[in-house]
Amino acid sequence: MADDGGEPGESESLKCFGAVLKALREQAGLTQEELATQTGYSTHYVAKFEQGKRYPPQRFIDQAGVILDAPHVLRAAARHLTRRRGLASWFQQWAGVEEDAVSLYAYECRVIPGLLQPEPYIRAAFASSLPPLPDEQLEGLVEARLDRQRILVEQQGVDFGFIIEQAVIERRTGGDEVTRDLIDHLLDRAHLRHVHLQIMPLRQPNHAGLDGPLYLAETSDNEWFGYFEGQQSSALIRSSKDISALQQRYGMMRSQALAEDATVSLLREMRGAL
């Protein structure tokens, strides 16, 4: 998923929002830890919001506004937010949905999903970009993707599901050493109790995912969104009819892919063959 590629965005509006948030928090006599506890976000996230290094989800903006007794002020500051540094403009809406998700499901047939990529794989993927990326931009993209991955570890109340085509791993993007690191990383993530990893085997006569990659997310308000991405563009799907179709396909693929224990066994087998 080329989810956070593209031109780095300006961060001045994020810094402005962060300054407003910090001023309101201090005015209310709260520490970052206290605001984090009351909003349900980690202290790390609150610190990033105040530093202008992370895009605040709408749920946080609404909750913090009420807690700090300044909902109109915080919403006004949020209206001028621009896209996050290191995230492509077409990915912005989905990134916000992703951070507010209580359920997040992905099927990929092209590349390892961004949330599961170890750093060597991330660098190998971006090194393949055309036109080539300047070093500074590449480093920003790597940092942004690694930062996004915190939700996989920190948000243990979120149900994460990933279905990955075996061929994506067999491709050995970046070479054997990168692939060894990738498989070790996937095995580590597969052991998290809230992460469900399945591999779609090379041979599968019945396949519900032939239309391409798909992403599904359920927000804290129990609203479902879909997402797909192509060359230099993407689409956020809101239509209940379209969401239903994507859910049917993903559900069918879950039954067609290898079970989680069989997936782990295959990964170990592939690791041993390298």
Can you walk through the features of this model?
The chain has helices at 12-27, 32-39, 43-51, 58-67, 71-78, 92-99, 119-127, 135-148, 150-154, 166-170, 176-190, 240-256, 260-273; strands at 101-108, 159-165, 195-200, 214-219, 224-230, 233-237. With 274 residues, it is of the alpha/beta class. A six-stranded mixed sheet has the order 3-2-1-4-5-6, sandwiched between helices. The protein is globular and about 60 Å long.
Order of helices and strands: HHHHHHEHHHEHHEEEEHH
Average pLDDT, rounded to a whole number, is 88
Number of separate helices:
13
Which band does the percent of strand residues land in? 5-15%
In short:
The protein is built from 13 helices and 6 strands. With 274 residues, it is an alpha/beta fold.
What descriptive keywords fit this protein?
single chain; 274 residues; six-stranded mixed β-sheet; 6 strands; alpha/beta; disordered N terminus
Layout of helices and strands, plus pairs?
Blueprint: H1 12-27, H2 32-39, H3 43-51, H4 58-67, H5 71-78, H6 92-99, E1 101-108, H7 119-127, H8 135-148, H9 150-154, E2 159-165, H10 166-170, H11 176-190, E3 195-200, E4 214-219, E5 224-230, E6 233-237, H12 240-256, H13 260-273
Parallel strand pairs: 1-2, 2-3
Antiparallel strand pairs: 1-4, 4-5, 5-6
Helix pairs in contact: 1-3, 1-5, 2-3, 4-5, 7-8, 11-13
